[in-house]
Every structure is written in structure tokens, then in C-alpha cells.
Amino acid sequence: MQLFVLNLQIMAAVVCNQAIGAFQSHSRINNFNHQQKFNNFVRLVTKDFISNNCMSRRDRSVIRSSASQISVVDTVSSPSRSRTSDRDIHKKSIYSYSDEAALILIRHGESLWNEKNLFTGCVDVPLSKKGIDEAIEAGKRISSIPVDLIFTSALIRAQMTAMLAMTQHRRRKVPIIVHNETEQAREWSQVFSEDTKKQSIPVIAAWQLNERMYGELQGLNKQETADRYGKEQVHEWRRSYDTPPPNGESLEMCAERAVAYFRDQIEPQLLSGKNVMIAAHGNSLRSIIMYLDKLTSQEVISLELSTGIPMLYIFKEGKFTRRGSPIGPTEAGVYAYTRRLALYRQRLDDLF
């Protein structure tokens, strides 16, 4: 009987895959109505298999369970551009397929201007030697946490941090920056091997995740600026929520763009079950954490993020739960937070 059930499951999977292909040839299966139609089709196929083969109650539960695990959510190589109203529909249709996802936040490693104590802001400065080491160490800390999609700012120090961190991941997938700037960029950067795609992780670079723009302070020495304008004035520019430096951005202005991008482009990926890593900057990440932890404007200005230290959140049933920073690649604590993370690590142990 077990062999019989197994054969039926295989047959059901073949039929379901054919159904997916048929639906996809007509249009992409990425909206609620198509998913409902497909779910009805799966239930119909399952019912026919059960009734035609006179299966026992126990065997029926086996094949029904198998059918319920089928997901019709497409693998996404770049973020969706759906409107807010579409996102609400997306939430309702996704929850039955995925109930948990990991979100990793990493502030970039030390940059060459951090090393020189200069205001950096949106100036595109690379990592220092210490920053490179911090990025590699961050990668070791998250080496057994699943990563399906990476978002970075448009600045090289954040991108270097993401790339260097992923060199340490046990899954050994290759991070590849997605180029959607122009039609030619998309065409020229295509990957034509399905096997290679499966061993790659899309990296989305977005200016909305950039550090706050420090205006006329960019490139100035922090100590010399304090001596010139006074410590209190410089402290207000750096640490207040709504006071920008001359011709620059306040934290409030930075939060507007960073949080809007997170809600529109990143949160839908988490809803679909994708595990996401964000490598960005002190102020853009503080803005996102303000949204995740529901901090007030007064609470967020006292929030400090160390360079190169990953922070883990679990996204489940529409809620974000902070789990702190993974201690290290061999520590068990972080993997005990959820059964899903523990199982993922066990699979890595079995594979590698």
C-alpha cells in the first residue's frame, strides 16, 4: 500500500507540474485569483485520485498533505513593483504557503573614511582592511542561516560587505548583482543556465538604502567640524531625528525613503517565504529597525549599530521578532530560535 501511495503521489506531482506550466503559458501565476483556480484544480485532481483508487482514510491524508504543500509562488530574481493595495491581496494569498522567513541586517564594515574619522554620507568609499575583516566575520556568523535574496545600498562599502559575507556561507551560492538599469543591462547580464541560476543569489542594489546624505559635512573631519561649529551643533546634526546638516538629510528624511522601500520591495519577499539579507548603513538600518521594532523618534536616535555585526529577525504571521546577533558559526543558540532554522542547519550538516 505504501508503494501504491508513493506512485499516486508521483503521478499527482506530474499532473500538478503540467498544470503549473499550462497556467504559466497563459499568464504569470502571481495573483490571488490564479492561485485560487490552481488550488481548486489541485483539490480536484487529488479527489479523483482518491475516489478512483478506493484509498483508505490514512492514505487519503498522506496524499492530501502532499498536495497542500505545493507552492505556486514564483522564484523572484528582482523585487516586485506592486502597489500597496496589491500587497494586501498578496499577504492573504501567501500565508497559506509560507509561515516564516529570516531577515538579516548588517551594517557595512568600517570604510576608509570611517578609519580617517571623516563624514562619509553618500560619498562612495570602499572598506578598510578592518572593514573587510569585519565583513568576513559577519559572514561566518550567518553561515548557517538561509539567504535567498540580498538587498544592498548603491554604495560600494555595503556591496562589498554583502559579497564578502557570502563567501563564508556554507550553502556556497554565488551572489550576483541584478542589473535592471536599462533594457540592454538586463539583456547583457542574463544567465542562461538553469543549474547556474539555482546556485546563485540575486543581489538588488537600491539607492533608497543609502546612508543619509550629510550635505556640506561630507568629507570633513568630525573633530575639526566640532571645533568649528561647536560640539552641541554637530551632535544635533548627527543625532537629532528631524534636524538636517547644511544641505543634507535628517534621519527623518532618510527614514522616509528607506522604510518606504522596505515596505514596498522587501517585505513582499519575506511574505512569499524568502529569506532576506540587507547590507546597508547606520542610518538607513536604524530607520528600518525603527519600523520593525515600532520605536519612537526619541528611541531611535539612541540606537547604535556596530559595523559588521549581523542582526537577525524572524518574520512570522506578519510580525517581526528580533533575535539579536548570531554569536558565531559554531554556536547552537541562534539555531534554536526556530525549528525551521534548526532543520536548515541540519540539512547543511548532512550535505557538507
TrEMBL record:
Catalytic residues identified in the record: H108, E211
Site features described as Transition state stabilizer, chain residue numbers: H281
InterPro entries noted in UniProt: His_Pase_superF_clade-1, His_PPase_superfam, PG/BPGM_mutase_AS, Phosphogly_mut1
Pfam families, A to Z: His_Phos_1 (PF00300)
Gene3D superfamilies linked: Phosphoglycerate mutase-like
GO biological process: glycolytic process
NCBIfam families membership: PRK01112.1
Keyword Coiled coil in annotation: no
Similarity comment: family membership: Belongs to the phosphoglycerate mutase family. BPG-dependent PGAM subfamily.
Signal sequence, start to end: 1-22
Record keywords: Glycolysis, Isomerase, Signal
EC number(s) stated in the UniProt entry for this protein: 5.4.2.11
Protein name, entry field: phosphoglycerate mutase (2,3-diphosphoglycerate-dependent)
